[in-house]
């Protein structure tokens, strides 16, 4: 009897397996597919730093050249560039910028405003604020100048600035003489465009118009005695601090 009822029971189950959807769910299955959401739903906003006007102090002039082609040494591509010449009472600096960055130089109001061609491109938005920072730093350099102070912390650490006529690469070049506990003093030639002085035996003052070159030379001096965390000795640049550690216990 069980075997005779099995086929009919299977047909009954198959016939009753049809599922009907509720009326309020039918439009959801027949509607168009929803596109995938992006990770960020925010719109592309302009650079807050890049759209800020740069004030040009009296005595500082900006000269923007025509586009020219530069060969990229990494990709060997021909990249169009423009040169912005910033001149002031302390010197002159040249800044190379991409052609998609536009500079609106208002000579009457003595200010400059930067903009880009396409704000939707990530590369242009990144270079927008970066170019603004470089241009603002160059204007401050040729008008007021940049400085860096190095502090020598350690017993017997001393510094002095002297001239070495037999080693000079250009007339008037200075040399920083460091006594850092080695068997011989360390002599470092000051690059062109940077002025060095020692107001105290444990202080080195670097002055110049290009902040990038000043901090690069300060980093080279710092490498001779990097601050160590146990005794706190070393060469510190500007407001640099270090967290001291406890002594190693064997």
TrEMBL record:
**Which InterPro entries does the protein's record reference?**
Ribosomal_uL6-like (IPR000702), Ribosomal_uL6-like_a/b-dom_sf (IPR036789), Ribosomal_uL6_a/b-dom (IPR020040), Ribosomal_uL6_bac-type (IPR019906), Ribosomal_uL6_CS (IPR002358)
Domain Large ribosomal subunit protein uL6 alpha-beta spans what residues? 153-235
Q: Which GO terms describe its cellular component?
A: mitochondrial large ribosomal subunit
Q: Which of UniProt's keywords are assigned here? A: Mitochondrion, Ribonucleoprotein, Ribosomal protein
Name the Gene Ontology molecular function terms of this record. rRNA binding; structural constituent of ribosome
Looking at the keywords, is Transport present? no
Its subcellular locations are: Mitochondrion
Asked whether the UniProt record includes Repeat among its keywords, one would answer: no
Source taxon at top rank = Eukaryota
The biological process GO terms on file are: translation
| Family to which this protein belongs | Belongs to the universal ribosomal protein uL6 family.
Q: What does this protein do?
A: Component of the mitochondrial ribosome (mitoribosome), a dedicated translation machinery responsible for the synthesis of mitochondrial genome-encoded proteins, including at least some of the essential transmembrane subunits of the mitochondrial respiratory chain. The mitoribosomes are attached to the mitochondrial inner membrane and translation products are cotranslationally integrated into the membrane.
The protein in question is named Large ribosomal subunit protein uL6m
Task: Identify the species of origin.
Answer: Diplogelasinospora grovesii
Q: What is the lineage of its organism?
A: Eukaryota, Fungi, Dikarya, Ascomycota, Pezizomycotina
